[in-house]
């Protein structure tokens, strides 16, 4: 009886470690194919490249409401064009709070900081929290749901909130 219990516990622990290892490998793939691309496109002010990490159909949720018409993709391009025309630079830093991943879906949450640098060198900052759902679509990871906010419980997200962890580096 004790041997059977030990065998069951050993198998459960071994398969749990395998699942964590597989999730970690998948997250590394997502980091390289989605998050690294997202950050580089954002900082290059390249709306087309940024939009490429999204699926054809995305649920975008903001404090202003729901976007199921993909309007945000055009806004990405317009906003980045305006940044370039003004001579502004943009940096995006973020870190993950939680990540839950299997072979087909990943749910990533975290905090971000956007730094906008004006042509005269002045910097402004925006902070927020994100919740992102990604799906493996025909072998490629794509963002299918994108939610972010600058407030939690009615309170603005601040530099102190962001500074709780170090940003990811690829």
Account of the 3D structure:
This protein is an alpha+beta fold and 170 residues long. The protein has a single domain, classed as Nuclear Transport Factor 2, Chain: A (Roll). It has four helices and eight strands; from the N terminus they run ααββαββββββα. The strands form two sheets. A six-stranded mixed sheet has the order 2-1-6-5-4-3. A two-stranded antiparallel sheet has the order 7-8. A hairpin with a 2-residue loop joins strand 7 (151-152) and strand 8 (155-156). The longest helix is centred in the first third of the chain and has 42 residues, at 2-43. It starts with a helix and ends in an 8-residue tail after the last helix. The model is unreliable at 5-18 (pLDDT under 50).
